[in-house]
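Q: I'm building a small set of examples for a reading group on sequence design. Run inverse folding on the following structure and report the sequence directly after it, with nothing in between.
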């Protein structure tokens, strides 16, 4: 009798755990012991060979499986190239992640921290561009004509395609203006990837960049050490088939990521052999983990920030959560 009652109670409970996703926790694999990522090649070895040998030649060990082909991942629209805007020394490329319909956010940035006023600061040349996917019902022609600062990918602009924006950004930063001016190599020393709802202090950003040489392997911002969400009702739910491990590698919030030229180069080549993951910040963390790049925490990039007056930013570099109106108000005051 007691066994029947126990079974009658246990079966619905186990079914509930299954449908809620709670049972997934029982079948997770250990990240520390088992982590590997398709197509399961020695990414670091490949990247080292690519950096040591001529880019157009085949590395000594050519037995690698390609996941992402740069000859296919070409943008639909690229920003206008101006060889005098930023160059190989003391320059910073800011790539703002946005969406076609978020014109107000782009205009607010163009009139505040992304304005011509900050195109040069403390010996640094700075350029700000915007990356997005395509959206058929949004006409960008006038904006492209007026500003020439849009990087538009050949993919649908959706949340799950944010990783494609990251890949597009790395490709553009790595190959900045080289196709338009093939005789002038434009290897940008510093790159900031940032969302279009951030307040950014250009003085503090430049001061931070100066702490690191372009050849250092810098990958910094607000660091997360987290686990995948398994509960079925969570909007960022991750199934075991998509990611079977009990935690993610350390990663920097995609809201604001500062990279050096060296890290961009390594990410660029690693992307060829690392399968895409739908969350761009986790994907960057996977790249860094496979390459052995330290994920440097920096609390001057505030992910959990709140709107504060510009005069009170102090040493903060970027703060999340600003509307176009709040950005405009900050700078007008």
């Amino acid at each position: 009798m007691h066994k029947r009652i126990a079974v009658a109670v246990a079966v619905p409970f186990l079914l509930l755990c299954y449908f809620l996703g709670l049972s997934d926790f029982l079948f997770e694999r250990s990240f520390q012991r088992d982590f590997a990522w398709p197509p399961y090649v020695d990414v670091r070895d490949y990247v080292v060979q690519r950096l040591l040998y001529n880019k157009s030649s085949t590395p000594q060990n050519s037995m690698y499986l390609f996941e992402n082909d740069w000859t296919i991942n070409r943008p639909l629209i690229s920003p206008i190239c101006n060889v005098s805007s930023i160059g190989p020394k003391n320059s910073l490329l800011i790539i703002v992640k946005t969406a076609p319909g978020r014109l107000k956010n782009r205009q607010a940035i163009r009139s505040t921290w992304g304005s011509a006023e900050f195109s040069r600061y403390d010996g640094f040349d700075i350029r700000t561009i915007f990356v997005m996917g395509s959206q058929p019902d949004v006409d960008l022609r006038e904006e492209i004509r007026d500003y020439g600062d849009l990087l538009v990918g050949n993919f649908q602009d959706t949340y799950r395609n944010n990783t494609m924006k990251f890949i597009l950004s790395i490709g553009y930063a790595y190959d900045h203006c080289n196709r338009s001016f093939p005789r002038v190599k434009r290897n940008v020393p510093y790159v900031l990837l940032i969302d279009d709802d951030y307040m950014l202090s250009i003085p503090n950003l430049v001061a931070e960049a100066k702490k690191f040489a372009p050849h250092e392997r810098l990958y910094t911002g607000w660091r997360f050490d987290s686990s995948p969400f398994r509960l079925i009702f969570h909007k960022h739910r991750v199934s075991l088939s998509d990611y079977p491990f009990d935690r993610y590698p350390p990663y920097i919030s995609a809201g604001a990521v500062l990279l050096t030229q060296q890290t961009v180069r390594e990410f660029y080549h690693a992307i060829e052999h690392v399968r895409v993951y739908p969350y761009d910040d986790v994907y960057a963390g996977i790249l860094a983990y496979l390459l052995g790049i330290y994920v440097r925490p920096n609390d001057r990039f505030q992910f959990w920030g709140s709107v504060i007056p510009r005069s009170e930013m102090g040493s903060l570099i970027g703060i999340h959560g600003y509307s176009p109106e709040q950005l405009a108000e900050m700078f007008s005051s």
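Confidence is low (pLDDT under 50) at residues 13-17.
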